[in-house]
Amino acid sequence: xxxxxxxxxxxxxxxxxxxxxxxxxxxxxxxxxxxxxxxxxxxxxxxxxxxxxxxxxxxxxxxxxxxxxxxxxxxxxxxxxxxxxxxxxxxxxxxxxxxxxxxxxxxxxxxxxxxxxxxxxxxxxxxxxxxxxxxxxxxxxxxxxxxxxxxxxxxxxxxxxxxxxxxxxxxxxxxxxxxxxxxxxxxxxxxxxxxxxxxxxxxxxxxxxxxxxxxxxxxxxxxxxxxxxxxxxxxxxxxxxxxxxxxxxxxxxxxxxxxxxxxxxxxxxxxxxxxxxxxxx
Amino acid sequence: xxxxxxxxxxxxxxxxxxxxxxxxxxxxxxxxxxxxxxxxxxxxxxxxxxxxxxxxxxxxxxxxxxxxxxxxxxxxxxxxxxxxxxxxxxxxxxxxxxxxxxxxxxxxxxxxxxxxxxxxxxxxxxxxxxxxxxxxxxxxxxxxxxxxxxxxxxxxxxxxxxxxxxxxxxxxxxxxxxxxxxxxxxxxxxxxxxxxxxxxxxxxxxxxxxxxxxxxxxxxxxxxxxxxxxxxxxxxxxxxxxxxxxxxxxxx
Lengths: 281, 252
Hints:
- The structure holds 2 protein chains of 2 kinds.
- By secondary structure, chain A is mainly alpha-helical.
- Chain A has 13 helices and no strands.
- The model of chain A has no long low-confidence stretch (mean pLDDT 92).
- The longest helix of chain B is centred in the middle third of the chain and has 14 residues, at 118-131.
- Chain B is globular and about 55 Å long.
- In chain B, helix 5 (118-131) packs across helix 7 (151-163) and helix 7 (151-163) packs parallel to helix 8.
- By secondary structure, chain B is of the alpha/beta class.
- Chain B starts with a strand and ends in a 5-residue tail after the last helix.
């Protein structure tokens, strides 16, 4: 081997090493986040923290049960609002790859995805909070559902576009009407991709704080009424972290820990669904 | 010829301005296999896709002329009604991937919302799978997914799915082009067996296959029906020079 080859091989090694190092480096932020949250948050996590309501400052104990319930209500509410619209729009876009309306819809989806969440919060405020003269769970659900929409639409469209055309032909050739072909053949075949998209969109909105500031607002009491302000984990974290009391800071860490675990859980389930329910052709 | 099942008169098909089929005239009797043969792009696939009106699903596709399935005017019916009377098997096996073998066979009933009793369905499944020579291979795994089968088995499953609807005619669009030689001969044997009970229209670019399985052959070239007659006659004494050249491998 001459010198030239040695240098080239060395360059090759340096390049491989750099790429791998930087790839591993990109995991560092996540690992640090998990480390800090676990270190600071795990201490306050206990059964009481999960099942009790917040107490006024000065009193020992209490928990974030209302925020957990509020987050669950907000997730369900925003899913009910966004999933049907999102899937239908996704079907339309996958069926119409050309066409003026389809292209306009597609553009709007991209723009909506890029719209700052705080702006969506303001819009929900104007639509629902202002006319009802009250912050409400409903307005928070609407704001979050607007955030979910683009993710669901995009993932449904991409999933259905991957369905082979011969599958549709097989159904149509049996005399199955177009709408049943879509609903009973194409959608069930793409269910894993669509569910994955929904779960990822839920994971995305679970941690959203900005759109909730002027909509769901937050509530230190338990609330089941959709027309009243409701608490949520991100809001509770914000509220506690902004306070001057060390006890509340600890609670903020604890709530952060729960939130991260929940979001991580949604992501892992989404992965599981994508792999396990994937349809083999 | 026996009683006519499919009758095509002065039939033309277009994609936009492009004329794909030019004044086709063709009659097929019952319980025979008619092979449509010709080089790629000659319009043979378009012709069978016109029979069950799958042709018109492509934007810009139009047709002219008459086509009758028994007494029914094909182009006066609702496509979804027509397609239930016509079975179709495609180039690539396309069983429904989320359905079991059992459900694939009765997909025509299930997806169309036709409700039958369990034992009626069982009978249809067994009869269709036996008809497609697949019963013995899958009788113990009826509730497994259809996509676990081999390519040739999947194609026979698709044939069973078409047979389950008791079609008046079965359209086979190059059913063996995606299969290995062994599966191909299994499908060909099946076609010969099936013609006792079903009328078939077989598209093939394989001359030998047309010779092996069909009773009548139509040679289509550049959208024109060059010659149509019994397979025996066409392969021994072709009338048209183009047919002879195609059969002897001068083009195609």
